[in-house]
Amino acid sequence: MPVNTCEKGKQGEGAAAEYLLSKGYTIETRNYRTKHGEIDIIAKSPEGTFVFVEVKAAQNRGCGNPLYRITPAKQKNIIRLAQRYMYERKLHSHPRRVDVISVFMGKIDHIPNAFLA
């Protein structure tokens, strides 16, 4: 039975969170939502950097590499949401970055600092 898009996304986010935890990150929050959008995972790196993670998942080659689905508009929105998160929590002086994690056909690719925040 095929997995629907929502389930696929949750599975990808779960795999990404497990991956980050295995690398020494702490998960601050998952699915940070505002009326302007969502950030899949907000974590803190072992060095103390806030990491805003966009997770893209695909299960087969027919879907293509999910990294290609991160448009410039999506990047801009993630940056805006990351800035809002930092502002709301008065974390202005803390280092931050945006990473992308691709879960594609069972393989995890982590791209640190994928675009500027």
Which segments are poorly predicted (pLDDT under 50) over 5 or more consecutive residues? none
Distance between the termini: 39 Å
Oligomer: single chain
Kindly state the percentage of residues in helix: 25-40%
Top keywords for this entry?
117 residues, alpha+beta, Trna Endonuclease, Chain: A, domain 1, 2 helices, 30% helix
Explain what this protein looks like in three dimensions:
Strand 3 (50-58), helix 2 and strand 4 (96-104) form a beta-alpha-beta unit. The chain has two helices and five strands, in the order H-E-E-E-H-E-E. With 117 residues, it is α+β, with helices and mostly antiparallel strands. The protein is globular and about 40 Å long. The protein has a single domain (5-115), classed as Trna Endonuclease, Chain: A, domain 1.
Layout of strands and helices, then pairs:
Elements: H1 5-22, E1 26-34, E2 37-44, E3 50-58, H2 72-88, E4 96-104, E5 107-115
Parallel strand pairs: 3-4
Antiparallel strand pairs: 1-2, 2-3, 4-5
